[in-house]
Amino acid sequence: MRFSAADFRQLQASGLVAVSMIAVGVAALYVSYQARESAELTRLAVVAQRNEANAKLKQVRAEESEIKQKSILFNQLQERGIIGEEQRLEWVELLKDIRDQRRLIDLRYDISPQRLLDGGPVGDFAFHASSMKLELKLLHEEDLTRLLRDLQQQAKALIRVNSCKVERLPPTADERADSRANLLADCEIDWLTLRDAGRK
What we know:
There is one protein chain. The protein has 3 helices and 5 strands, in the order ααβββαββ. By secondary structure, it is an alpha+beta fold. The longest helix has 75 residues. The relative contact order is 0.12. The mean pLDDT is 83.
């Protein structure tokens, strides 16, 4: 079979069309690959932004919850009189009330000047302590534990017991058996209050 010049021209035209179609196909494949890569990069960027937004939202919610809890605690401390200036007069009245209610035989105390608690301020507030020496005569040890528990529950301050020493008293003949003190307790406690660190 012989090819004429016209056949070669037709073959040449067909070849050019085929090459053009292949080139168009390759270009289309390249463009679609680039589009897919761009879409994947866009998807990853959107996912990263969403994850970052979710992380920030979780952090904000956690901070909001922490602020609410701290606010509740702050309000509770404020209601109990722990935040603010120390209320020595009320402390003394409380001691007298407990002494009368518990029918303690003898109760003496001495309060030292207020001092900044070791460690300094925490944020905007600082703990202050007023040390008190307590000396009381007891019928039995439970009188002391009741007194300390009453103070911790009712005082407009946080009560920290630093030390307590209890010793037996020698018997005396002139006291009635039902009112005679058997023990002498010598304790040191701190009355802790929380105050604005900026205030002098």
